[in-house]
Write a structure and sequence with these properties.
- By secondary structure, the protein is an alpha/beta fold.
- The chain has ten helices and 28 strands.
- The protein folds into two domains: 205 residues, FAD/NAD(P)-binding domain (3-Layer(bba) Sandwich), CATH 3.50.50; 141 residues, FAD/NAD(P)-binding domain, CATH 3.50.50.
- Bound molecules: flavin-adenine dinucleotide.
């Protein structure tokens, strides 16, 4: 007798960033390929770009076209499905999500509003900078949350240089204020300083490198507040050396067209302002269909990464608030980092695979391997944490190598060892055949 085949379980992953695309790739290879489940990845964009590279795109040291990955291609190679669209709603009773329509650049609707059913839903929609409703921030600041924004910063930078070149003013200056001296702000500041040197080398020398004035404005009493103090001291020293001004203990209270005001009333004049402070998960997640969320819209999850309210819905990466207990019995919240997104994606892939065979969900344990800060071509500083190294501070080339390895690990999860090796080779070769900076 012909037995009717059970319908395949539908696993829908929303957000193909650092966490989501690794998860979709792993599940596609293990479950999708063997037709044990239908894996669908939804993303508001058509291509994946690894977010920790955005400051390099903003400064022009990296051309985003060279490192973007088509979701459709990755889906085809790894046995999952890609659906373009922005999640806007959730219906837990019907087990479906609602997607906004997709429009082209002229506002013409290409894909209508849709719903997508799921059996297990994974939310991995990341985060954006948090401007804490500071007056003037959205109007007068640039942001660095996605590729388009990074490219906008780069285009604005180049336009300032072209304008200065055409004006013939031998004393032209460009003042950039970066709000937030966390990893993003610090790395961006160093990268912009490198861009100033390179732009002059390529003939855009009306603004001399020392006339690109980058100021980091930080509300806390030291830069890199999430990292150990000795790292922030060392990085501050290096920033001073390359001429980047650092203002700590300065909470920004208002942004204007020509600068920003801090709580003490002091005014910092600037031509460009880039907001790089804080994070928050997308607004639409706040309390979505009864799920529990915190004050920055992150979904509360258990150590299994299942949301506290609904066991069929998981959240990971920057949009999840996950508290776990370490070996010493201390509980801590997983930081919003690529390293955490990568580890959570690996765990959740294993967990969903084992659940497909009827087992219980696995529990996430975070291993902090340390933090690394890249100061563009000048240096890198950070600490490594491990059973053998303990808490070891590193600087210079070794730190740079470990910094780069985080991206290579992401590529390895997406493409495997062989293709990652080929990509490294391609990057080395292309460094010799193109300008050191994107000049358009
Ligand atoms: C400039 C910069 C530098 C950084 N450097 C480092 C670093 O050196 N080391 C480090 O550990 N971390 C770094 N980070 C943090 C790191 O990038 C994040 O922690 C990590 O990307 C989080 O991964 P994620 O998958 O949660 O989210 P993301 O990588 O942000 O991906 C979210 C995805 O969801 C999609 N999406 C969003 N909303 C929707 C929606 N409604 N519907 C459908 N899709 C949606 C987005 O298009 C995106 O593809 C940096 C961040 C920035 C901005």
């Amino acid at each position: 007798m012909n037995q009717a085949k059970a319908p395949k379980k539908k696993i829908v992953i929303v957000g193909g960033g650092a966490a989501g695309i690794e998860l979709a790739t792993r599940l596609g290879k293990k479950l999708g390929k063997k037709q044990l489940a239908r894996i669908t990845l939804v993303d508001a964009q058509n291509t994946h770009f690894w977010k920790p590279l955005l400051h390099e795109v903003a400064a022009g040291s990296l051309n985003a076209f060279e490192d973007e990955l088509s979701y459709l291609a990755q889906a085809k190679w790894n046995h999952f499905h890609f659906v373009p669209g922005q999640m806007a709603s959730l219906n837990r009773a019907e087990k479906s999500i609602g997607l906004n329509p997709v429009f082209d650049d002229n506002g013409r609707e290409i894909v209508p509003k849709r719903t997508l059913p799921y059996d297990q839903l994974v939310i991995a929609v990341g985060s954006t900078a948090n401007h804490f409703n500071t007056p003037g921030a959205t109007e007068h600041c640039l942001f660095l949350d996605n590729r388009q924004q990074a490219e906008r910063i780069h285009a604005t930078l180049i336009n300032h240089y072209l304008h200065a070149q055409a004006s013939g003013n031998p004393d032209a200056r460009l003042r950039i204020a970066i709000i937030g001296a966390g990893a993003t702000g610090v790395e961006l500041a160093a990268e912009l300083h490198y861009a100033a040197i390179e732009l002059a080398r390529y003939g855009l020398d009306a603004i001399r490198p020392e006339h690109l004035e980058v100021t980091l404005i930080e509300g806390g009493d030291r830069i890199l507040p999430a990292l150990p103090e000795r790292i922030s001291t060392s990085v501050r020293h290096q920033l001073n050396k390359i001429g980047i001004r650092v203002k700590t203990g300065q909470l920004v209270s208002e942004i204007r067209t020509d600068g920003l005001v801090v709580r003490s009333g002091e005014f910092f004049e600037s031509d460009l302002r880039i907001w790089a402070a804080g994070i928050k998960a997308p607004e639409f997640l706040a309390g979505i269909d009864g799920l529990a969320s915190n004050c920055i819209n992150q979904l509360l999850v258990r150590p299994t990464l299942q949301t506290t309210i609904d066991e069929h819905i998981y959240a990971l990466g920057d949009c999840a608030n996950c508290t776990v207990t370490n070996r010493n019995g201390e509980s801590f919240t997983i930081p919003p980092r690529a390293q955490a997104a990568h580890q959570q994606a690996s765990l959740l892939a294993k967990s969903l695979i084992t659940q497909a065979s009827g087992n219980e969900p696995l529990t996430f344990n975070y291993q902090d391997y340390g933090s690394l800060i890249s100061l563009s071509r000048f240096s890198a500083v950070g600490n490594l944490m491990g059973a053998i190294t303990g808490d070891l501070m590193i600087e210079g080339t070794l730190a740079k190598l470990f910094y780069v390895s985080l991206y290579r690990m992401h590529q390895m999860a997406l493409f495997g060892k062989l293709r990652t090796g080929t990509l490294i080779l391609k990057d080395l070769i292309s460094q010799t055949t193109r300008p050191q900076l994107k000049l358009h």
